[in-house]
């Protein structure tokens, strides 16, 4: 991830299953879209969006590239955008691995209301299986309301305990009280040692996060 060098160094880069968690409005979707733009330079991205909408993401991308239409077109030409995940199997058949699959957010995936947590866990198992087929998976997740304002940890992800078992890398954004800044914590790091607060992020051009520092 060229725009997030400290995160790349401490995790070994994007592979397996990554989860980005945090309170509402803290910047999870901003970070997921930034990762998407980074990855799309080198391989296809299937982006399943249930939070923002295509027009919003394109407006944000235009802001990132300061209205340069050609730059926006080049940035997104390898991104395949979907608002419905029921076509996942046919989408994967059309876009074989290696590719990145992004889900924003896991709590919005279709599941029986009465058995919502069970349904989400089944989705997680299905998405985890994509790793064996050569895909990388990035999931955006809310954290439980009881965890608002608390410390970052792997059990804070909302409605499913399976994330702590399936995530290769778990990230959480912590609200600093300043909408232009957030703390980035690594709460799961299966293949590397570092866990804890990695850096503060500061907004650049409104819809990009820039790292301010890293671990000692």
What letter string, H or E per element, gives the SSE order? HEHEHHEHEHEHEEEE
Number of distinct beta strands: 9
Across the major sheet, the strand order is 3-2-4-5-1-6-7-8-9
User: With helices defined by DSSP (H or I, 4 residues minimum), what is the helix count?
Assistant: 7
Question: How would you classify the helix and strand content by structural class?
Answer: alpha/beta
Task: Estimate percent helicity.
Answer: 25-40%
Shape annotation: globular
Quick one: biggest sheet?
9 strands, mixed
Terminal CA distance reads 20 Å
Rg value = 16 Å
Q: Extract low-pLDDT stretches.
A: none
Strand content: 25-35%
Q: How confident is the prediction overall: mean pLDDT?
A: 92
Please describe the structure with a list of short key phrases separated by commas or semicolons.
single chain; 216 residues; alpha/beta; nine-stranded mixed beta sheet; 9 strands; 29% helix; globular
Offer a concise description of the structure.
This protein is α/β, with parallel strands linked by helices. It is built from seven helices and nine strands, in the order H-E-H-E-H-H-E-H-E-H-E-H-E-E-E-E. The two termini are 20 Å apart.
Notes on the structure:
The chain is an alpha/beta fold. It has helices at residues 5-11, 28-39, 54-64, 69-76, 88-94, 116-129, 163-166, and strands spanning 17-22, 45-49, 79-82, 100-104, 136-142, 169-175, 181-189, 196-204, 208-211. A 9-stranded mixed β-sheet has the order 3-2-4-5-1-6-7-8-9. The chain starts with a helix and ends in a 5-residue tail after the last strand.
